Amino acid sequence: MKPMEGALTLREDQILIVDDEEVIRTVLAKRLEKEGYSCTTAQNGKVALAHFYKNTFSLIISDIKMPEMDGVELLQKVKAVDPKMKMIMVTAYPEIDLAVNAMRLGAYDFIIKPADLDLIVISVKKALESKRLEEEIEAYHNRMEELVEERTARLQQAYRILKKSHIDSVKVLAEAIDAKDPYTRGHSDRVKRMSLAIAREMGFSEEKLENLEYGALLHDIGKIGIKDEVLRKQTPLSAEEYQYIREHPLIGVKILEGVEFFKDKIPMIRHHHEHYDGSGYPDGLAGEAIPSEARIISLPDAFDAMTSARPHRGIMPLQDVLAELERHKGKQFDPQILEIFQQKKIYKL
Ligand SMILES: [Fe+2]
Known about the structure:
There is one protein chain. Helix 7 (about 185-200) crosses helix 13 (about 290-305) and helix 13 (about 290-305) packs antiparallel against helix 14 (about 320-325). Strand 4 (about 85-90), helix 5 and strand 5 (about 110-115) form a beta-alpha-beta unit. By secondary structure, the protein is of the alpha/beta class. It folds into two domains: about 5-140, Rossmann fold (3-Layer(aba) Sandwich); about 180-349, Hypothetical protein af1432, CATH 1.10.3210.10. It is built from 15 helices and five strands. Fe (ii) ion binds near residues 219, 220, 248 and 273.
């Protein structure tokens, strides 16, 4: 035996030969075994199917006309279980239309009886080669899919880390803002938490929530530009000082406007001191003209300022603060947002 043929025997392809004529089964099996294949024989579709369920075959060669179960029925039953199984149909010339039908049903090839054994061997080799190629392509596709999944997961992980470090650096900035005024320690974080809780109740999308998180953390960034002696003043502010502090939303806009990432957060910073009735600053916007994010932020901002100790007064009791907010419903605050704040007890966060 030539070395190449010897190599083929290593694969030990199992072939199932199905024919009701014993002599055909025997001759075909003998020839294929000479080629290095292992063969199992069956006298009809039913017996063949029993073998197929029990063993693993690389290929089936089947007659079409047989008692009990014919080759076409066998083909359909095999394909239902293993759509990739290669089947070569062998048939007499008058039954050629049955063979054509079998091809439509997924047979790999058909050979006319009396069968030329060399022709069958060539067809077997082609069928097995095609099966191997299909398996290789499938394995390649599976590997590619795995690779894509792996890379996607790694990218998503990197994106999460990047996003987290970004928000963390903004948190540091927010803490720096809070540190300017010892009475507002943790203020930005509390405003952020309450603002997000309100926005969730209002059905904000994930993207809008993320924007709001940045806006709420940075709403007072303009205070960086306000002198400490005014911010930390222990006595009530003069009219000029009060006017000076009112510049912080516009200073905030100036700080952030050069950074592309913060462009869509700027309206929240600019308008967080607008009042619902138009009496706020810097633009005196009213009602829906105030961006919803700014209407949200202004409420926890005021609430947190009232519940924190200030230089010229102590901490107000919660009930008094809630009554004060109610008094400003529809004036300073959006009435619907205030209702969410009250009903969902957002202030308990
Ligand atoms: Fe502010």
